[in-house]
Amino acid sequence: MTNGVPRRLAQAVVVLWAAFTLSFVILYLLPGDAVLAKLGGGEGGSTVTAADVARERAALGLDDPVVVQYGKRLVAAAQGDFGRSIATGEDATTLVLNALPSTLSITGLGLLFAVVFGGAIAILGTYTRSRLLSQFLASLPPLGNSLPPFWVGLMLIQVFSFDLGLVPALGSDGFSSLVLPAVTLALPTGAIIGQVLAKSLRTQLDEPYVEVVLAKGAGRARVHFGHVLRNAALPALTLVGVLAGNLLAGSVITESVFSRDGIGRVTASAVSAQDIPVVQAVIVLAALFFVVLNLVVDLLYPVLDPRLAGRVTAKAVSGV
Amino acid sequence: MSSLAPPNAVRQELGFYLRRPGLVLSGAVIVFVLLCAVAPELFTSQDPIAGVPAERLQGPSAAHLFGTDETGRDVFARVVHGAALSLRATVLSVLVSLIAGAALGLLAGSRGGWVDSLVMRVVDVLQSVPSILLSLALVTALGFGTTNVAIAVGVANLATFARLMRAEVLRVRTGVFVEAARAAGVRWTGVLARHILPNSLGPVLVLATLSFGTAVLEVSALSFLGYGATPPTPEWGSLVAGGRGFLATAWWMTTFPGLTVAAVVLATNRISRALDGERRLG
To answer: Chain B 163-222, CB below 8 Å of chain A: which residues?
Structure first.
């Protein structure tokens, strides 16, 4: 098992490098001028001279040849430095990291809601004997995936804050202000979990071992929770990396709907101001999330499923 | 009558739709929205840009189906007129994913070797960053506006298309008819255009219909965040955003435009599901 670790770490580094390169190509090589955006040259501000623009460009290192720019930025990024925010002059990495805790609190709670509700829908939908209930539960995830999250957030504010007065509508203070944003984030994520887990459960229920266990006299509940669920939950684990990325991305919309501080707000205003260093820092952070979680899942897999431990070693030995 | 399909087939056809009221309703929603995009004046005679200040913030009524906003503009008229821009952006984004993705997949699958590896690694990278962040980065670089939003969403989603196209090309490439054409001396480009492309495009086109719903959601999300059309021009996402300040007093301003987006997404998902397989099974 230990054989696989260095190789996986190397893969993770490659993904991070690739995400950096992709964001460099998009942000620094595509046409569009952040300097003009900063100096306000576009709208009405006719006081910007060519000399101002040139000075600003030189200060940001945008004058160097592309290869030199790329090299310099890659070396800096490897040390966690993405440059200064064009809009505020703050260090982009600090700006993003300071916003992280607030976002983690809603994404964490959102993930919890998503796992609980998505899981409940999948388990109940496959356990029940009522065809109607099972069909109804199976139709919920596609519905959750079809509703625009920004609109769902606003509807929740409408109902729970203004009509019922249960929770504060906006802002970042207190646990009660976390609930609605977390529900909004959980909706699409929970839908994915519900769909994947239900499918996985159905596959497992068709396996021959289910009949064997039933024949030995185990009850349906015991088969469902003791055997089938344990086997079905494992494949769903591979989703974690993707889901975390989705939650982080979803925070852009959720935080702007609920006027909360966090990575999403930082991203949205950075995009508005065409603040390239900040946007790049966010993208690399998202890739880092994805990579680290996948790494953890990969390493946990053999621990949770002893059958895989054998397979991984076999793979490593044969050099695949 | 005799030159048409036999009555039995007609009855079967009718039965197929009668047993699926949801599918028929979805079709109706899509037809209605398309008509709105092409000829908005068919459904509303009110001006989507200039309001009547005396009628500001009125609730839904017979005169104003979806109510009016803070400057007295009819919300229904704005939703109807917004259809053109929102749908055009959606279609453009799906076309970008389809054409660019299919081209990359075709290139990778047909050339093989290092071209294949290179293209597929680029696709891997595109998939390692959440698509909304990717489209936000593209919007940052390209600038704002409906067209740029559509391109950004399209590029962010092209990876799936490239993967599927490549897999299909690899499957078709080994076919006996491809070998026969090659042996008969048809040039590689000819084989590609005449045999491989037509036989591998089907599943990719189905994927295109399946991704319409997601595209509507992503385009409207970016428009909600304010990166789409400039304010007075109606777009579905920005209409929802416009009602944010009036949640407590004018619920209709956010509720109806949002419901429209949800209805369109549900309808396209239902129809693409039918296209994906239900139809063939009858």
So the answer is: 213, 217, 220-221
Helices (H), A148-239: 149-156, 176-205, 208-215, 220-221, 229-237
Of B123, B136, B140, B210, which to mutate for an interface test with A (greatest number of A Cβ within 10 Å)? Answer: B140
Question: Chain B within 8 Å of A279 (Cβ-Cβ)?
Answer: yes
| CATH number of the domain where residue B166 is located | 1.10.3720.10
Q: Where are the domains of chain A?
A: 99-319
Alpha-carbon gap, residue A147 to B269, rounded angstroms: 12
The interface predicted TM-score of the complex, written ipTM, equals: 0.83
Calpha distance A277→A56 (Å, rounded): 15
- Give which of A151, A47, A295 is closest to B263, Cα–Cα: A151
B101 assigned to some structural domain: yes
CB contact under 8 A, A245 and B140: no
Task: Give the per-residue pLDDT at B282.
Answer: 36
Q: Does A158 touch chain B (CB under 8 A)?
A: yes
pLDDT for A60: 65
Least Cα separation, residue A269 to chain B (angstroms)? 10
> What is the amino acid identity at position B11?
R
CATH topology classification for A99-319: MetI-like fold (1.10.3720)
* Residue B86 falls inside a structural domain: yes
Please name which of B65, B7, B240 lies closest in space to residue A253, comparing C-alpha atoms: B240
Look up residue A293 and give its two tokens. 């979680």
Range of the domain at B253: 2-42+67-281
Q: Is residue B263 part of a domain?
A: yes
Confidence band of B93 (pLDDT split at 50, 70, 90): very high
In this structure, is residue B123 part of a structural domain? Answer: yes
Predicted confidence at residue B6, as pLDDT, reads: 61
Closest chain B residue by Cα to residue A247: B130
CA separation, residue A270 to residues A95, A149, B137 (Å): 11, 21, 10
Q: How far is Cα A267 from Cα A263, in angstroms, rounded to an integer?
A: 6
CB of A167 closer than 8 Å to CB of A264: no
Of A23, A246, A291, the CB nearest to B130: A246
Contact of A135 with chain B, judged by CB distance below 8 Å, is answered with: no
In angstroms, rounded to a whole number, what is the distance separating the alpha carbons of residues B75 and B51? 10
- Residues in chain B within 8 Å Cβ distance of A287: 128-129
Tell whether B121 is within 8 A of chain A (Cβ).
yes
Distance from CA of A255 to the nearest CA of B (A): 11
